[in-house]
Sequence to fold (270 residues):
Amino acid sequence: MKDILTAPFLVEMVRTTTNMYAHGWDERNGGNISLRLDEKDVAEYVDVNKVLRVIPTGFSAPSLAGMYFLVTGTGKYFKNVQYDPARNLGLFRIAADGENAELLWGYSDGGQFTSELPAHLMSHVARLKVNPDNHVVMHCHPANLLAMTYVHDLDERAFTRTLWQMCTECIVVFPDGVNVLPWMLCGTNEIGIATAEKMETARLVVWSQHGIYGAGVDLDETFGLIETAEKAAEIYLKIAHLPLKNTITDDAMHQLEKRFNVKAREGYLD
Ligand code: 13P
Ligand code: ZN
Fold:
């Protein structure tokens, strides 16, 4: 069995949490990540027949039965993942009943997966229906997107169009736009169900006055999605109080669609 600390998926997870902390997106224990893994990759590093603990998830996700996930621990600080991955991360398989997590590695202090597991796993279910290659769900608290939810209309079309107008490449990076949930109690199955529903039509879901969820095929792509939206929100906050003299027009957006071979969300451009 190889040393799991050398596994590419673990190294990338450590790098990502460290980088997200460095960006200021994950104060204290803020944020959480789930990374779906293939059994053949996991089996090189852990004995998949040796279940350390069975942890109830509190909800049912039968379509994820038998799938493997590397997930940040609840109450754990992203800044600390690099110093003690085994304490701050856990690797588990969803049991055949779809309702329990079979821990194979990690959560070494007796801890468990993020309190936002419902939003993560339900979002995996939703995104896998759209793209079977989806591996990542990522949540964090980037300041500018969060601030924007205090002063901008929460209508999804309006919110998306504002972000698209803030940087030329936004529409190229997230042509599916950004969905928005009103403030809801976090850590619940209810917000998990609502997030997953929003994930059916976009890979970014804003939690008003809280943060954002992103989904993607790998950690890099998902990080990049959030990074691009957050940059746009930063530009918005720099200019929102100033008289607007120029913008990226819908005609320009249509040119971008052609040039980069992307299709903007139906009905979002005039
Ligand atoms: P966890 O520490 O349980 O992952 O929660 C952090 C968070 O961001 C809640 O939304
Ligand atoms: Zn949060």
User: Anything to note?
Assistant: The chain is about 40% helix and 15% strand. Residues 29-32, 72, 74-75, 114-116, 139, 186 surround 1,3-dihydroxyacetonephosphate (ligand 1) (CB under 6 Å).
